[in-house]
Design goal:
The chain has helices at 10-19, 51-60, 71-76, 78-84, 94-101, 103-112, 126-133, 159-171, 239-259, 293-296, 304-312, 387-398, 414-417; strands at residues 3-7, 28-32, 42-43, 65-68, 88-90, 120-123, 140-144, 153-156, 182-186, 192-199, 204-206, 211-212, 215-217, 221-224, 229-232, 266-275, 278-285, 327-335, 347-350, 357-360, 363-366, 369-372, 376-384, 401-402, 406-407. By secondary structure, it is an alpha+beta fold. Strands 12, 15, 18, 20, 23 and 25 form a six-stranded antiparallel sheet that branches. Strands 3-2-1-4-5 form a five-stranded parallel sheet, sandwiched between helices. A four-stranded antiparallel sheet has the order 6-9-7-8, with helices on both faces. The model has no long low-confidence stretch (mean pLDDT 97). Bound molecules: adenosine monophosphate (AMP) and glycine.
Length: 418
């Protein structure tokens, strides 16, 4: 069986390493992949958004199954085009991917179907948004409607900051067309939990819970990033909360999408906040999270490719998805300066006695050596019997990797282990 994975980050590397475990897999192609992924798959120089070329490649290389991992191609309809050409895919079609592609869609869906989330208003006119802010409770949260590389959310602690956010998004158009509309929503408080799920539109199977660390610096300080590290399972996600989420959030979301004629098949990611009034949805993503995938997949016992094929064939109810009882920790090593300006091109040295899984996100290969090429460079991922041990092990392994100006947080999971 030939498999093609669209994407180029640490998440894609983790998916590829996992599907390699399936004995029926012949060739794995990564489009475009990266210098590290090249050790586990054949990298092809076709970008994640070059859908036409992806389809051509799939046809001429006898691809049996495609995994579309990033948000952009999903929202642009890569799955629709591949399926039209007869290629089976893991991932939602364009109609369903809108759950991440438009925050206005997601919020209106939750309101219509009584799915708990922050109260909100939608604006397509900046003057009206600013007028509304005069009476809105502060802090408040301003969100660009469309995709914005994870940067379209601004938490404003003063009225001035809030007005500035609206102007930046709607008038200066820093996120382009993604900022034509904004959502202004209630500020919520509580621990955050990421729950990735497999769903074929009929059945929904939550994976082990996790916690992302989005800020660049220790103590949740600094700018928002794509994610600086993760742990799993998330201790704030108790059995009671999990039950509540299943009944009040997960199943209602799948049913809502079906009723809207937008059946979701693939990995639906629930970004949750455990508020004092119960769990609420912060965001939906139409794909695996990055770097959540780098802690969730190492704990998965069931064959990933078989789950993905069953999802595509709407036969998820026939699969018993099992995770082991261990814990995992992932520390992201980034280029100093990320998420702002940073330099690349530095050699990455990884000691031979490394005992962690290394998932490469931003590196190029040259004459057998890896050089940094992105903001997030790699993930160091470990598993152990307890979360404390997994964290200790991850930081021990981080010491075995070096590149110039490397930056990583020293407190991944710290608030979970007391
Ligand atoms: P999002 O891209 O929607 O996940 O938002 C990015 C981050 O902003 C989330 O992980 C939260 O930490 C924070 N955030 C988003 N919405 C809210 C909210 N309504 N209240 C508090 N924090 C929020
Ligand atoms: N880690 C958050 C995301 O993938 O959007």
């Amino acid at each position: 069986m030939n498999v093609m994975v669209i994407g180029s980050g640490g998440r894609e590397h983790a998916i590829i390493k996992k599907i390699k475990e399936n004995p029926n897999v012949d060739k794995i192609y990564a489009l475009p992949g990266n210098g590290g992924i090249a050790q586990d798959a054949i990298c092809v120089n076709i970008g994640a958004k070059e859908i036409e070329k992806q389809v051509e490649f799939a046809i001429s290389n006898n691809i049996d199954f495609a995994i579309v991992a990033p948000d952009d191609p999903l929202v642009l309809g890569a799955v629709d085009e591949l399926e039209k050409a007869g290629i089976k895919c893991f991932g939602p079609n364009k109609k369903a991917a809108i759950i991440e592609g438009s925050k206005v869609f997601a919020k209106n869906l939750m309101k219509k179907y009584n799915i708990p989330t922050a109260k909100y208003e939608v604006f397509s006119d900046s003057k009206e948004a600013i007028k509304y802010l005069e009476t809105a409770p502060i802090p408040t949260v301003i969100k660009a409607d469309g995709l914005a590389l994870g940067k379209g959310v601004i938490i404003a602690n003063t009225l001035e900051e809030a007005k500035k956010a609206v102007k930046t998004i709607m008038e200066d158009k820093v996120f382009g067309a993604s900022g034509a509309k904004v959502v202004i929503e209630e500020f919520m408080e509580g621990p955050e939990v990421s729950v990735l799920t497999f769903t074929d539109g009929k059945k929904i199977i939550p994976m082990v819970s996790s916690m992302d660390h989005k800020r660049a610096l220790d103590g949740d300080k600094g700018l928002n990033t794509g994610g600086m590290g993760t742990i799993a399972p998330n201790p704030y996600y108790t059995d009671d909360i999990a039950k509540k989420c299943m009944q009040e959030i997960f199943i209602p979301t799948i049913e809502a999408m079906n009723k809207e004629n937008r059946t979701f098949k693939g990995c639906l990611y629930f970004g949750l906040m455990i508020t004092k009034n119960g769990p609420k949805v912060v965001e939906y993503n139409c794909r695996f999270g990055d770097p959540e995938t780098q802690v969730v997949l190492p704990l998965l016992e069931t064959d990933l490719l078989n789950i993905m094929i069953a999802t595509a064939n709407e036969k998820l109810s026939e699969i018993n998805v099992k995770f082991n009882n261990k814990s995992a920790c992932c520390v992201i090593m980034a280029s100093g300066g990320y998420p702002e300006k940073y330099e690349t091109g530095y050699e990455i040295n990884i000691s031979k006695d490394i005992e962690a899984q290394i998932y490469i996100a931003g590196a190029k290969e040259k004459e057998g050596k890896l050089y940094t090429s992105g903001g997030r460079v790699l993930a160091v991922s470990t598993t152990a019997d307890t979360l404390k041990q997994a964290i200790e092990k991850a930081y021990k392994e981080v010491e075995k990797i070096s590149f110039k100006n490397a930056h990583y947080r020293k407190d991944i999971g710290a608030k979970c282990v007391g």
